[in-house]
Design brief:
This protein is mainly α. Helices cover 79% and strands 0% of the residues.
Length: 181
């Protein structure tokens, strides 16, 4: 009988630990899923935000910081590739447009870095403003290929789209962090 009580106690302890461990994981996946279901591109959100190891243990505030970090990394990657693309472009208008994009991405990166700082301080109104400004700079880069000359496709159009999608995710999360009156 003593061994049965001992075994039962161990089984109950193991069960309780298992329930808390697994329920925490499901809650995090559910939080990510609820954010991604609000986005225009569920697959992009689930793959990128849901695939980031930091997101697995994050609360809503943490998810905001993770999504901003992903946006910053994407912007830095794009900025790092622009000089190589400029070297391959031969026409002057293409080079000029890429120069505009380089400046836009530098300014955008600064705004997303500021949005990270604002979010860290729970200054969500500032976060929204910085994300808006950073996104608008990327949109300007994207649209520059439709201005002042023949319409062309930007060689970093895919990067622009990723930043815009990340921005949407940030705003979805931050909106949920702002207390409703």
């Amino acid at each position: 009988m003593v061994s049965f009580k001992y075994f039962s106690s161990l089984a109950i302890i193991f069960l309780v630990i298992s329930i808390f461990s697994f329920s925490g994981c499901h809650a995090d996946k559910a939080l990510i899923d609820s954010v991604c279901r609000q986005s225009q591109d569920y697959s992009f959100c689930a793959t990128n935000l849901g695939g980031d190891p930091r997101a697995a243990t994050a609360d809503l505030h943490g998810l905001a910081l993770v999504s901003i970090s992903l946006t910053i990394a994407q912007s830095q990657d794009t900025l790092g590739r622009i000089p190589d693309i400029q070297r391959r472009v031969t026409n002057p208008l293409g080079k000029k447009r890429l120069g505009v994009c380089q400046n836009d991405y530098k300014a955008s990166l600064g705004n997303f870095q500021n949005s990270f700082s604002s979010t860290s301080r729970n200054a969500y109104g500032d976060t929204i403003n910085f994300v808006r400004d950073g996104t608008n700079q990327v949109i300007h880069c994207h649209n520059i290929y439709r201005m002042n000359g023949p319409i062309a496709t930007s060689p970093i159009a895919g990067d622009d789209t990723k930043v815009i999608k990340y921005s949407e995710i940030i705003l979805i999360i931050v909106d949920q962090l702002i207390p409703k009156k």
